[in-house]
Amino acid sequence: MKRRFETFLDMSLWISALMTLLYHFRFLMFVDYEALREKSRADQVFYFFTGLGHESFAVFFVVNGICAGLFLRNTMPARGELALLGRWWRSHLALLPVLVAGGLLDLIGAYFFNGSGLYSDFPAFSTVTLSWSAFFGNLFMLQPALVPTFGSNGMLYLYAYLWWSCCLLVLLRRAWRSGKPWSMAIGAVLVLALASWMPWTFWPWLTIWLLGVAVGLRGPWPRPLLHPLAAWGLLATAIVFSRLAGARTDLLPAPWGQVLMLWKYVLVGLGFAAVAAVLYRNPITPAADAAAPSFLARVNRHLADSASMAFLFHFPLMMLLTAIGADLFGHALMQQPGLLCYVLLGCAVTLCYAAGHALVRWIGAPFCGARPIA
């Protein structure tokens, strides 16, 4: 794989994880934009970029899909789909200690640091469900269709969406490649069974992930499918539109406003996939790819190695840090922006990302198969 493209995937992966952390921390530590007393230019820029949470989710899904597509492309066709599921399953085994650790952090926060009411009075932000049914349901990827997400970790629903997207791709490819009517019929029945119990919110994220799979499987291209400026313009337009539309459901008559609010992220995924396709090109320059990676390239790789863990499992630590700050240090939730708030935000985000890196080192492999595959 061309090093420039791999660097682009690495950088996109950790930036999307970082933006996700900023997005969630901002909702806990800062007031909503409408409640700002003074809307300085710096505050406006800060709120715009830290509001790109779901747009960052879309970028993460496309990169994950690209990696799955690259894996299938570089694996023998006879075993590619099963090997992809096996790769996912091996990384999924790490979920057990991570779920346990997250549950322990939530128990500590709920019992000892809930003076601010963070764990009990903010159900719109995170509902803390620490039941055994939720634990085992999340372990077998049944959230959010059959059980709630475990503990405070609301991001676990996206993890399940990634898993079921991978399963659906494997089912469809195996059924199609077999060419046998009975095999295709079984595949269709299994797809329909999956569709019958997955929530409707699953399908936009599946679409976004499949956009990435298409880039990984079909590239590299001898010439760009779009002019680079057109691809970047499409991505920028999609991001600005998504950000300005926000959570407004009154832009279209019901129920289309609700549909637009979710499917607008597909436009962001499409824009990012277009940029990725432009960068994933032939010919590959052997001399450039054989050169030793620079220091910045190695840092970029290490940040990307930790991105999936930080993206999917930052919630319990984030909640605990915020609760400790409120109970022990009197730092109230949802404050007006200020220098101290910005400094504390930077420290908290850094600590959460470092914890994700430590978990990856402990587990011994990047999580959920989301790293680029050369």
From TrEMBL:
It comes from the Bacteria. The chain crosses the membrane at residues 12-33, 45-72, 92-113, 154-172, 184-205, 225-241, 262-280, 311-330, 339-360. The keyword Magnesium does not apply. Keywords: Membrane, Transmembrane, Transmembrane helix. The keyword Acetylation does not apply. This is Acyltransferase.
